[in-house]
Design brief:
322 residues; alpha/beta; five-stranded parallel beta sheet; 11 helices; 12 strands
């Protein structure tokens, strides 16, 4: 899981403010760039809209000033292209032009510009308008960060940092559907911490919580970046392995089992405790069948765990799907 996103407005305001200045006239571009640098901005330039789109795609610019009339792609087309793009963060855009009729102002704003400034540029006015842009960008990015943090919290188990059951129940059916529709391999590993009640009864619930955190950290450290871990409930966890057939998933589960059993968990009291887990693996040798369901897949994993525990725990049992 990724680290929580910071939502502090001050952090956004303190960042370096980067402006993309777009103008096909070299002298005008140089004059405005010097003005902006004196005001403390980091400035990058482009000679037309096509060049600007490429730079916007490869760098984070909080602000953009663009001329209207340019070859290849003018400022209006550039504004439209920017608003249609899927950039992660908002770029506040000022359209700079000699056209000052109401019709032109409306056309610029409708194309996606946030502000409209007529030439010749008056430095105090430009700086004031950029300050307005900075306030808007700061608020937008703070709101975006807060929304991302709220989403992260809504799909995360607060104790272990793994995905929660809600996320599992939403995303695993999508993985199954993708496997069936596009011919992708898919497997699931379910694991249950052995003798967890005994750990709680002997060492206390705080120790039990630490064991669960430790266990998930070990799982997350030893799965691929494409795999993901979710808490199914209590001391049960699920590892989803896209692009993996059941035979390879069984091998991965055995590696996890051996790794966990080879180390000891350090408890808050300073004691260490041995932790093992029973594993149930299910999935397909090739691809999921049309109509395959999450319930059927999880039931097979459950059956695998039951068999592992019945046969002495700390082992892997495979219950492949038909």
């Amino acid at each position: 899981m990724s680290e929580p996103t910071k939502t502090n407005d001050a952090a956004t305001s303190a960042a370096v403010w980067r402006i993309l200045l777009v103008d096909d006239e070299p002298t005008q571009r140089l004059i405005v760039a010097r003005l902006l640098k004196r005001a403390g901005y980091e400035v990058e330039t482009a000679g037309n809209g096509v060049e600007a789109v490429a730079k916007l795609g490869s760098g984070d610019f909080q602000l953009m000033i663009t001329d209207w009339e340019m070859p290849e792609m003018d400022g209006i087309a550039l504004c439209r292209a920017l608003r249609k793009s899927e950039t992660q963060s908002y770029t506040y855009t000022i359209l700079l032009t000699a056209r000052d009729s109401i019709e032109n102002v409306v056309a610029g704003l409708q194309a996606g510009a946030d502000d409209y400034l007529t030439k010749p540029v008056i430095e105090p006015e430009l700086i004031a308008r950029l300050n307005t842009g900075k306030r808007i960008v700061t608020l937008e990015r703070s709101l975006r960060a807060a929304n991302e943090e709220n989403r992260r919290i809504s799909i995360t188990d607060p104790l272990t940092g793994a995905y929660n059951r809600r996320y599992l129940m939403e995303q695993l059916p999508r993985e199954i559907d993708r496997s069936a529709r596009y011919g992708r391999e898919l497997s699931v590993v379910m694991c249950d911490v052995d003798h967890f009640k005994r750990i709680n009864d002997t060492h206390g619930h705080l120790a039990g919580d630490e064991v669960l955190r430790w266990f998930v950290a070990k799982l997350q450290k030893h799965v691929r970046s494409a795999d993901w871990v979710a808490r199914y409930g209590g001391e049960e966890f699920v590892v989803v392995l896209p692009e993996t057939n059941v035979r390879n998933a069984a091998s991965a589960a055995e590696n996890l089992r051996q790794y966990i059993a080879s180390e000891r968990c350090l408890l808050p009291s300073g004691e260490t405790v041995e932790v093992t887990a029973s594993f149930g693996v299910s999935g397909w040798q090739a691809v999921a069948q049309q109509g395959a369901t999450l319930d059927a897949l999880i039931a097979r994993c459950d059956a695998g765990i039951y068999a592992s525990k019945a046969n002495g725990r700390n082992r892997v049992t495979v219950e492949a799907m038909d």
